[in-house]
Amino acid sequence: KTKIDKVPALDIFKIVQELTSNILKHGKDFEEVSLILREETNSLIITLEDDGIGFDSAQLLISDSIGWTSIRTKIEILSGKISVDSSPLQKGNTYTIIIPLQNLKKLKSAS
């Protein structure tokens, strides 16, 4: 298992915290939220899922809200990518973040 430096670990914590806060604030009719962190093929994969009502994820990814701007900035600094799987016609929402492990050892905080 890869040891993550303190500064990028804090950025990852803040990303997960903000995503979780968004689910609690804006999620509809959810009962469960799950968080999975795993190391796979030189990447850290973070998956956050809820079982609530879906939404238009395309609008979310272009949002200029402070929370989403912060999430995207932190992910970009870590050279990561985020995808959101959701639509108004489905139940459940999945947020997947992929960050190269090599970038978790040498960067300064985005905070």
Q: Could you explain how this protein is built, in words?
A:
With 111 residues, this protein is α+β, with helices and mostly antiparallel strands. Helix content is 34%, strand content 31%. A four-stranded antiparallel sheet has the order 1-2-4-3. A hairpin with a 5-residue loop joins β3 and β4 (91-100). α1 (6-26) runs antiparallel to α3.
Set out the fold topology.
Layout: H1 6-26, E1 33-40, E2 43-53, H2 57-61, H3 66-77, E3 81-85, E4 91-100
Antiparallel strand pairs: 1-2, 2-4, 3-4
Helix pairs in contact: 1-3
Kindly summarize this structure in a few lines.
The protein is α+β, with helices and mostly antiparallel strands and 111 residues long. It has helices spanning 6-26, 57-61, 66-77; strands at 33-40, 43-53, 81-85, 91-100.
**What percentage of residues falls in helices of 4 or more residues?**
25-40%
The class by helix and strand makeup works out as alpha+beta
- Report the strand count: 4
Q: Helix count? A: 3
Question: Which word captures the global form?
Answer: globular
CA gyration radius, whole angstroms: 14 Å
Kindly report how far apart the N and C termini lie.
26 Å
Please state the average pLDDT score: 90
Major sheet: order of its strands?
Answer: 1-2-4-3
Low-confidence stretches: none
Secondary-structure element sequence?
A: HEEHHEE
Beta-strand portion reads: 25-35%
Largest sheet: 4 strands, antiparallel
